[in-house]
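tool=predict chain=A
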Amino acid sequence: MKYIVRDRNSKEDIIECSSNALNFLYNTFIGRVFLRLFITKTFNNLLAKYMNSKYSKHRIGNFVIKNDINLLDYSKNNYRSYNDFFTRKIKDGKRPIMMNKDYFIAPCDARLSVYEVRDDLVLKIKHSCYDISSIVNGNILGEYKGGYALVFRLGTDNYHRYCYVDSGTKGDNTYINGVFHTVQPISLKRYNFYKTNSREYTILNTNNFNKIVQVEVGAMGIGRITNLHGEHSFKKGEEKGFFEFGGSTIVLFVKKDIIKIDEDILSNSLEGIETNVKYGEKIAIKK
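tool=predict ok
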C-alpha cells in the first residue's frame, strides 16, 4: 500500500509503501492467523525482552543505513541493545524548541494530519475511519467540538521521545489496555487500531492553549508507553515521555478558537497528505 508524506521545506512528496511482511500479515488468510499471535500482550512482552537484550544489537547497523540516521546527532554511540538505540536521546540543540508563547509546537517527530472535531467526527487516516469516542474513556471530548484533532504518526525511523507543547500542569495519566497493531496504514483497512491498541491519555492544563487532551497510542512491537510524570507542573519543550520499539501515534485534542493551524499543514490534510514535522517545531499559532 502506498501513501504520501510531504516535506515542509522542499515541498517534496515522499511515497511510502508498506512492507511485504505487513502485506502478508494483513492481506492473507495465513498471515491473519499469525497476526492473532503477534498482537497479544504475551508476544509483545517476549519481543520487548529480546529487544532489550544484547542479542538484538546486530539489528542496529542495518537500520541506521536503511533509514539514513546520523548517529552524530545523538548523545551516545555505544548501545546495549536495539531498544537502547531506539530510545536514544538527541543532543541539545538538534531539536530546537520554538519558545514564543504564542507558538503551538509539535510534540514529536512525526507525519501529521489535522481534523476538525464535529459531533459525528471520525478520524480518516488513509482509507479508514475511526470514531473518536473510542480513543479515551468517557465523554471528555464533548467540549472539543469545533476544535482540532491533531494526529502525529511516528514511523520507526523517527525520534521516539516526545515533549510538552506548552507550560502548565497535569494530573495522573489514564491507561487503557488493548492489543498491539502496527500503525502503518495497511492495518487501517481491517482494524480500528485506536480502539484495540493500548493507549494512555492525560489532560494538560496549559498556560496559553487552554485544556489539551494528549493520547499516546502503542503499536505492534511496542510493549510499553513510558510517560515520565504523574501529577506534574511542566515547561514547554520539557520531555514528557518516550515509546519503546515499534511504530506509535500521538493524538492531541485542542478546543475551538484556540489555535490557527499553519496553512501548509491544513492544505495537505485536506488532500489526504501527511506533513513531516519535527519535535519542537511551530505547527500553529495562538488565535
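The first helix runs from residue 20 to 27. The first strand starts at residue 2 and ends at 6.
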